[in-house]
């Protein structure tokens, strides 16, 4: 999201502060729910609100905040808000059910890796499409059943639903009448009736639910790389190139 905002000149006019994810410590609070010293995380809809989070100090509406996972350091918890809410809300549209078969594309990425884990909790069988052969082991470790880096290897007509995080057309793999939800910027496939896009929205309560899963050991947050903010150019080059097994985190 961040590199697309920068490269495509989306959202508020420049100059602006990028960033949707936040993990940090409360310095000052004007509400009783949070006190100085509390560890918190949040997601800010930066494109629509203009409130970017890549800063040493961020003034955040209290309604966006939730307590950070107790079992994660903040530099790892920072990878949860945007990717976690994107995966959760899109899966609410996909509605995988016990006994169904779901395909997640881009399953080793920040959103895809969380989607595989969350979808398995529904009782559905979750398969994974990744972009590189080296990511096959990552997706299997997260609990995906069939994992491949080739669309041609997917079974024909096998999937009740597809969650597309990587702009990949499932071809003949989606069963007739199957559900397709995308979070990509590409146009929806014209040959899939009912294909839908899902736009992430701010949701502190939903984020708190994800935190509870993390603290219960039922949801793993993958970070592919950490960079100091002074190395932000390199960080952009890395996640713009793709193929990172998880999120790229900036440290202030």
From TrEMBL:
Positions of the Enoyl reductase (ER) domain: 5-250
Superkingdom of origin: Bacteria
Listed InterPro entries: ADH-like_N (IPR013154), ER (IPR020843), GroES-like_sf (IPR011032), Lipid_raft_assoc_Zn_ADH (IPR052585), NAD(P)-bd_dom_sf (IPR036291), Quin_OxRdtase/zeta-crystal_CS (IPR002364)
SUPFAM superfamilies reported for this sequence: GroES-like, NAD(P)-binding Rossmann-fold domains
SMART domains linked to this entry: PKS_ER
Name the record gives this protein: Oxidoreductase
């Amino acid at each position: 999201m961040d590199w697309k905002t920068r490269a495509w000149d989306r959202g508020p006019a420049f100059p602006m502060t990028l960033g949707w994810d936040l993990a940090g410590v409360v310095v000052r609070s004007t509400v009783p729910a949070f006190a100085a010293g509390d560890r918190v995380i949040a997601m800010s809809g930066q494109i629509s609100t203009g409130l970017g989070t890549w800063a040493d100090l961020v003034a955040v509406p209290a309604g966006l905040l939730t307590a950070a996972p107790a079992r994660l350091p903040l530099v790892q918890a920072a990878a949860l808000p945007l990717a976690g809410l994107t995966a959760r809300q899109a899966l609410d549209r996909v509605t995988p059910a016990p006994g169904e078969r779901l395909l997640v594309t881009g399953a080793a990425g920040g959103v895809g890796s969380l989607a595989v884990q969350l979808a398995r909790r529904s009782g559905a069988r979750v398969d994974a499409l990744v972009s590189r052969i080296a990511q096959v082991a990552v997706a299997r470790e997260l609990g995906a059943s069939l994992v491949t880096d080739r669309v041609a290897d997917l079974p024909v007509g096998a999937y009740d639903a597809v969650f597309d995080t990587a702009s990949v057309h499932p071809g003949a793999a989606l069963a007739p009448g199957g559900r397709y939800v995308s979070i990509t910027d590409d146009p929806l496939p014209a040959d899939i009736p009912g294909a839908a896009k899902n736009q992430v929205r701010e949701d502190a309560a939903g984020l708190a639910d994800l935190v509870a899963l993390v603290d219960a050991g039922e949801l793993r947050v993958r970070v592919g790389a950490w960079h100091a903010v002074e190395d932000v150019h390199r960080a952009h080059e890395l996640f713009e190139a793709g193929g990172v097994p998880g999120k790229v985190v900036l440290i202030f």
